[in-house]
Amino acid sequence: MSKGTREPCFILLEKLITNIAENKDPDQDAKFRSIKKDNERLKKVVTKFSEGVNLMDAIGFTVQRVDGIEVWVHTGSVNYLKGVQLELQGGYSGCVSNHK
User: Fold this and answer.
1) Using one digit for the tens of pLDDT, what is the confidence trace for 44-78?
2) Which distant-in-sequence residues (6+ apart) come within 8 Å of 67 by Cβ?
3) Who has the most CB within 10 Å: 2, 54, 85, 91?
């Protein structure tokens, strides 16, 4: 994955993580912890690359079928995600934090 394709990938992953980590409404938890597998932006910048799929797995997303639709769902801990978020921001300073 080249630098030009990594940056949009990390930016989107950081946004997904932020949405989960900052959600304070338990009624909205499922909404923020899932994204449709066929989401065009996700496919374009993350999952069309094998590295992007591996990152989704490493972050704690798994593909599940919800109401007949394939969805990436995060079932892990928010604390783990906050650690991943810090790693993304620290390891790729500038490419993630400047695009919130």
Assistant:
1) 999 998 888 998 998 999 999 999 999 999 988 88
2) none
3) 85
Tokens of 57: 């797995």
Residues 96 and 84 sit within 8 Å (Cβ to Cβ): no
Domain coverage including residue 40: 3-92
pTM for this prediction: 0.78
Categorise residue 69: left if φ over 0, alpha if ψ from -120 to 50, beta otherwise: beta
Measured in degrees and rounded to the nearest 5, phi and psi for residue 38 equal -95, 15
Task: Please indicate, yes or no, if residue 97 is contained in any of the structural domains.
Answer: no
Please say whether the dihedral angle defined by the alpha carbons of residues 3, 19, 61 and 90, taken in this order, is positive or negative.
Answer: positive
